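User: Could you go from structure to sequence for me? I need the amino acid at each position, not a summary. Structure tokens:
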């Protein structure tokens, strides 16, 4: 199922933001067979993005609702991973374009909409994603980023060297970043 991962993640974001009523709008490119595949497909925390009530009483990260900041962080991270090998595949482009269209039709804020577009046009590096997006999300919700990384990486038929490196940087950052209270990220390359 090639790019299932990216479509799944973006659908989770769209549903979490209330842009879609958890319907498979991003389907149609053979990405999703329906919302059942998404929530029932053993996608762990990503299912929790949408399933606001969970019969098993498992921990839910976003209770089915995302703030724009959380949505942006998940989106930026998935775009960044998808692009870490330097290109978007045709399928990835289709999925992302559908997502952007849905966001533009929605009543999300204008600033949010232009950010979504800008991220796609200039995919951020790992460091930028962390500094500009992930650090703005409460770190007790960071498990969701683990899921996003796994989901997007395993969507490719073979893992690329770049994807492996990306995952390693994240694992490293989680260990180091927490200890140093993000100081390393804050003080290096600030442009303001």
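Assistant: Here is the amino acid at each position, in order:
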């Amino acid at each position: 199922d090639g790019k299932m991962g990216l479509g799944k993640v973006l659908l989770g974001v769209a549903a979490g933001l209330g842009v879609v009523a958890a319907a498979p709008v991003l389907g149609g490119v053979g990405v999703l067979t329906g919302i059942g595949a998404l929530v029932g497909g053993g996608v762990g925390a990503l299912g929790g993005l949408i399933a606001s009530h969970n019969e098993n009483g498992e921990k839910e990260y976003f209770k089915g609702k995302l703030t724009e900041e959380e949505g942006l962080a998940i989106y930026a991270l998935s775009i960044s991973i998808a692009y870490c090998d330097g290109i978007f595949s045709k399928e990835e482009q289709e999925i992302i374009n559908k997502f952007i269209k849905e966001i533009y039709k929605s009543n999300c804020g204008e600033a949010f909409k232009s950010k979504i577009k800008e991220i796609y046009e200039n995919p951020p590096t790992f460091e930028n994603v962390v500094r500009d997006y992930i650090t703005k999300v409460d770190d007790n919700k960071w498990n969701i980023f683990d899921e996003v990384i796994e989901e997007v990486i395993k969507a490719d038929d073979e893992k690329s060297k770049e994807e492996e490196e990306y995952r390693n940087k994240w694992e490293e950052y989680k260990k180091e970043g927490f200890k140093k209270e993000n100081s390393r990220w804050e003080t290096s390359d600030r442009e303001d």
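One structural detail worth keeping in mind: Residues 161-179 form the longest helix (19 residues).
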